[in-house]
Every structure is written in C-alpha cells, then in structure tokens.
Amino acid sequence: MLWITAALAADLVVDVRGLDSDAGQVFCALYDSADGWLTEAGVEQAVSATPAGLAATCRFPSMPAGRYAVSVLHDANANGAMDWTALGLPKESWGVSRDAPAVLGRPSFASSAFQHDGSRQVIHVR
To answer: Does residue 111 contact residue 80 with C-beta atoms inside 8 Å?
Structure first.
C-alpha cells in the first residue's frame, strides 16, 4: 500500500509572478484546510525561494494528491515578516493560490484552494 501513496505524491510547484524587485526572499506557505488558513498555526509546510527576473519558484516536495491552498509573501526587505502601513494595509507584495480576490478582507480558503494533481500553480502577487 505504501507504494500506491508514493506513486500519488508529486512535487507541488508554485510559480510566483509580478514581483516588484529581486530583493529579499519569497515565502510560500501551504495549507491543507480552512482551519488556520493564513495563520502561522495552520501552515502544513513552508518554503522560501530567491527571486530572479521578478519571479520565484516555490517547491513543496512529494506532496500527496489532495486539496491545498498556498499563500505567498515577498519579503523584499528580508526582515522575516509582512510589513504593514499605519492603515493596516500590506507594504509588501503578497498573493494566494488561484489569485483569489480579497474583497473587504482576506481571501477565503475555499476561493484559494485547488486540487493538487502534479500540475504547476501560478500566483500573481499584488
């Protein structure tokens, strides 16, 4: 039975596009449920990538098929955190899978989730 699970696992690759610069790092967080969505406690896996050409690629190795959502932060100043304006708006680029909209609040897990089948995901940061 173990070989069946291994056969269904594939790298989950996320191409991040639209970065403002190649400074800092891009952090990608993988979630497998709405519980804890967009919180540190809910992260299933986290990886980072170095930007190049205003893009980056995050790779989550050997992920089983399933429903996931990914959030992305371009930490351009490399301080390890999202920076906010005095009004509570993000100063750094961010995005979520399926480029789910953020209308009067955060994008939902349901609008960001996708079925992982081995195909690449693309996230355009805002």
So the answer is: no
Query: Count of domains in the chain?
Result: 1
Over the stretch 76-126, which tens digit does the pLDDT of each residue have? 999 999 999 998 889 999 999 999 998 888 999 999 999 999 999 999 999
- By residue range, what is the domain housing residue 113? 2-124
State the chain's maximal CA–CA distance in angstroms.
54
Q: What is the pTM of this model?
A: 0.91
Residues 91, 84 contacting (CB under 8 angstroms): yes
Residue with tokens 């967080």: 29
Pairing mode, if any, of strands 94-96 and 55-64?
unpaired
- Residues 6 or more apart whose CB falls under 8 angstroms from that of 101 comprise 107, 111
